[in-house]
Amino acid sequence: MVSKLQMLLLFTSAGIRRVAASSRRSPGSAFAAAFLTDPKSPALVLHSRGWRRTTGSSSTRFMSTDAAAAGEKTEEEMAALKAAREAKKAEKERLKAEKAAKKAAAAAAEEASNRIEEVTYLSLAEQDSYEPMGDMSTVMSRSRSGREFVNVADIGGSESAKISPGSRVWLRGRVNSIRVKGGSCFLVLRQNSFDTIQACYFKDKQNPEQSAKMLKYLKSLTVESMIDMEGIVSPAEVRSCSVQDAELVIQRIHSVSNADAMLPFLVEDAARSEKEVEQSQNTDRPFPRLGQEIRLDHRWLDLRAPANNAIMRIQSAVCQLFRESLYSQGFVEIHTPKLIAGESESGAGVFTTDYFGTTACLAQSPQLYKQMAISADLDRVFEIGPVFRAENSHTRRHLCEFTGLDLEMAINEHYMETLEVVHNMFKHIFEGLETRWARELEVIRTQYESEPVMFTEEPCVIHWPEAMEILRENGFDMGDGLGDLTGAQVTITSVLYVHGRCVFS
What we know:
505 residues; alpha+beta; 5-stranded mixed beta barrel; 39% helix; 18% strand
């Protein structure tokens, strides 16, 4: 027979199992299970004298034995499960890190393959070992590469051109404009501010990776960057460039100096005429007006506009033709001081400055020194140099500083000797500009309208009474005819064609 003690133990064990099973269904049962299975909780043990609450090792042994009998995991098993979970987590983290490392390595490899390195171009003979695209490394006079750069103006689409189709050439110039779309690129290269040629590049299906790098590099170029380009001349019809019957197929391209992506203004905006800007104001896309201040603040950019650049060349041409004419007429060029002790001319304002404790003046004219040269038996002299005059004005135009073209000569018998020299000089300048610098004048006149200067073959002399008559006929009140002439009156008498007598005086 089963004793009372054994039956009580069986009853208690079965109760614990039911409580443990029900803990999955209700929080209250879970609390009871925790109470019954917690080694620190008191336990009820049946003794011969009744039920007693116990704690400590005897209760723990009782509950552990009972939990094992009920199918619960032991402490050793729980520790093993925890260790297994941690190991699994560590393995998962390792696999994740390994995957990230492989991904980073693949990205680095792809970046390295697509990276466009700087090119150090040392020799034309070693050109095939250089990448065909990329910024040029700093030029430090390390070698003469052997490349020969050509002028855009020499390229043409006909066989009679100096550089004809099929020629492989190197050019250096600025990026005037660039457009990259899909697998193609069209670039306009500009030289000397007004010589332009179109260059193009198309994706090569035989070498897609190289083509992708080239297009990527072309897309990174900014307007006004200075570039070196190697290309093959090909016949084409291009109306937007100065070279209209040829283009370049790009083979190599390197940026020598990168321009900022954001410039103060665009050269094409600085190159528009006032008339063109005015006509655009009532349209959907009016052109910007560039004031004098922003142009002068960024003069280096403003002078890249074709007309403004051509004006600088014409200014140089005037000085060259001035010298040519006077040299041919027996003149000697002199160079006079510009920092002097006193005023050059009493009728003009003077700038003063400190000269080691003494007041000095900026020269208003080389007049005194020209006269000294004539007295020194040089007979005929001229000078091209700066002139300073402190003449304030109510307008924005001041004659504070300008470049003077001065001449002085001894007269043998009559002042007509001087008029003939001056007439020949002006005639040489105007004819030379219209013939030898016709391209520059054409460029200037596209933005600033003007007409060729007309003049007579021989000097035209208008005497004072005749000049007064001309002015009165043109509506001027000359009074007694003895006063000084204004600028407008001088223009009427010296430029207008009056009665067929004179064109220029």
